[in-house]
Amino acid sequence: MILRSLKFRLISLKLLNICKRSRCIPENGLQRFFLLLFQPKIDTIVRIEVSLLVALFKTLKGLDFLMNSATDLWGKVLEILSKDLTQTAISTWFDECNAVELSNNRLVIHTPSLYKKEVLEGRFLGTIRSALNEIFSSTDFDVVILDDNGLKAMTETTDLPNYLGIDEYTFDHFVVGSSNKFAHAAALAVSDITQKNNYNPLFIHGESGLGKTHLLYAIRHAVETNYPHLKVIYVKGSEFTDELVDAIRHKKNVEFREKYRGADFFLMDDIQFIAGRTSTQEEYFNTYNTLFELGKQIVFTSDRPPKDIHALEDRLKSRFESGLTADIQPPDEDLRIAIIKNKAAQLGVVLPNDVTNYIADNLDSNVRQLEGAVKMIIAYRDLMDDTITVETVKARLKDMFKGERDLIPTTDTIIEEIAKSFMQTPDEIKGQSRVADTALARQIAMYLIRKLTNLSLKDIGGVFGRDHSTVISSVRKVENKINDDRDFSNRIRDITSNINSNINSGR
Q1: Smallest Cα–Cα separation from 306: which of 252, 268, 341?
Q2: What is the DSSP letter of 120?
Q3: What are the residues facing 265 on neighbouring strands?
Q4: What b/e sequence results for 263-290 when a residue is b if at least 16 CB atoms lie within 10 Å of its CB, and e otherwise?
Q5: CB 142 within 8 A of CB 306
Q6: What are phi and psi of 325, to 5 degrees?
Q7: Nearest Cα to 369, choosing from 337, 400, 346?
Q8: Region label for 42, one of left (φ > 0), alpha (ψ between -120 and 50) or beta (otherwise)
Q9: Could you give the residue ranges of the DSSP H alpha helices within 385-435?
Q10: 3-state helix, strand, coil in the chain (%, to 5)
Q11: Where are the beta strands (DSSP E) in 42-160?
């Protein structure tokens, strides 16, 4: 048994090295699988015959010399093409071609001329694929041909930051149930440019932590993987506003517009954060129109449908509602259990059924909390070398089980959100300025801190360097304005919703 396990591990190590070099399987998936192979109780965790593993190793080893680089593979393809094409055809159309990427059964080829790109796609694409199929037997390869502009766009896309470990946020890792099935199907459809649809723009809404951002990242991942020549822009509503303010301040409006209006896929998360900001909405309106008229795909997420974003301009609401609107509801019990099991499986763990059911029963509204709970209890088990039971889960997750109703925003969170709404800084709101907009923002801050926190009047006054009587006066002024001015009331409601979205999502 010991010899068998040792042989299993040695062969697995060789397999891992070959697959990593060939890039024929995503590295993060390999790592998760092979880490399981080196657990102490290997024979009880994975039941794979050594003979089968040896056969797989031999097969991969035979392909290894072909898969070391895209350049090597392209050389093999040209050898095969030379048997069927004349030397003139090879030198005319292929001499300037280079293979620039090989991953996940996709070969990316670059030729500097747009004309040659079109000829290669029109006349030789099938021939190239046939050569690849000859090399890899039954493997179906996707071939992408780029000109200079396409290569530049792919390079820029590759250099984009890896938001929140984006490799985990794919369609494969999204657990589908009745509460999110429609939104998932819509997101999957817009990520496939070969499908003709009228889902533009796609507007996905739902409460915080239900998977909206996951779907945006999944769209981005799918497009970047399958269509590397396309430019994908992902941005949060608050970041869009911050970038615009910075562009105006440094006179870089042209660069700002070129960045966003050059997108093939424009993905904006939490678009509710642009509401109430006049200059941001104006800039976004023009960006939207440009992209829409060019036929570019636009996707938004929000914590509420367009009609309920009260400080959003009507012209933007009508455009958001002109495409497809899909909502995500809190997960039902079956979906919660599936999400817990899926996250545990990703981490290489099978949770006891009573533990899974206990978590699902006590965290019933937020996917992010469910996944966070699984990570926490597995980390506790690994660090403390303890068994996962319902009792240990109760002890470890007691704070989570209190529910969102106990979440209270900090004064900084409230002031920062009001500052964004008034295009000011938190220091200006807490300062001594008596400019009308600043004074109003300060009064709203005092009102919302009084409403949303447990601070005393004296403590609230201390935040702003005022006494409690000033706080009382500010609260009354805001309350009166809410009663008399419907637009102002809607603005306060939007600011409050944004604050709640921030604390519920952990921002």
Answers
A1: 268
A2: I
A3: 232, 297
A4: bbbbbbbbbbbbbbbeebbebbeebbeb
A5: no
A6: -110, 125
A7: 400
A8: alpha
A9: 390-396, 411-421, 426-430
A10: 65, 10, 30
A11: 98-103, 106-110, 142-146
What is the number of H-type helices and E-type strands within the chain? 25, 8
Closest C-alpha to 496, from 458, 463, 447 = 447
| Residue-by-residue DSSP string for 305-331 | -GGG-TTS-HHHHHHHTTSEEEEEPPP
The SS3 assignment for 300 reads strand
The three-state secondary structure class of 230 is: coil
Tell how strand 232-236 and strand 202-206 pair up: unpaired
The owner of tokens 């991969």 is 60
Query: In degrees to the nearest 10, what's the CA dihedral of 186, 189, 193, 196?
Result: -90
pLDDT at 404: 45
CA 405-410-413 angle, 5° bins: 105
One-letter amino acid at 397 equals: L
pLDDT in tens, 365-380: 678 888 888 888 887 7
pTM strictly above 0.85: no
26 sits in the region (left: phi over 0; alpha: psi -120 to 50; else beta) called beta
Instruction: With cut-offs at 50, 70 and 90, classify the pLDDT of residue 391.
Output: confident
What is the chain's length? 507
Which are the contacts of 107, defined by CB distance < 8 A and separation ≥ 6?
70, 73, 74, 99, 101, 128, 132, 141, 142, 143, 144
Q: From CA 206, how far away is CA 179, in angstroms rounded? A: 10
Q: Is the peptide bond before 26 cis (omega within 30 degrees of 0)?
A: no
User: Residue 218 forms beta bridges with which residues?
Assistant: none
Closest CA to 351 of 337, 365, 361: 337
Closest CA to 56 of 28, 15, 5, 108: 15
The CA distance from 221 to 36, in Å, is: 26
Tell me which DSSP letter residue 443 carries: H
Residue 24, amino acid = C
228, 208, 234: which is closest to 502 by C-alpha? 208
Tell the residue number behind the tokens 């899974």, with chain if given.
356
| Burial of 71 per CB tally in 10 Å (0-12, 13-18, 19+) | exposed
> In this structure, which amino acid lies at residue 455?
L
Which tokens belong to 144?
Answer: 């992408």
d(CA 157, CA 132): 26
State the average pLDDT over residues 33-52: 41
Token pair for 341: 């099991």
pLDDT classification of 382: cutoffs 50, 70, 90: confident
- Residues 8/37, Cβ–Cβ less than 8 Å: yes
Q: What is the CA radius of gyration of the chain?
A: 28
Calpha distance 371→336 (Å, rounded) = 10
**Cα angle: 165, vertex 170, 176; to 5 degrees:** 130
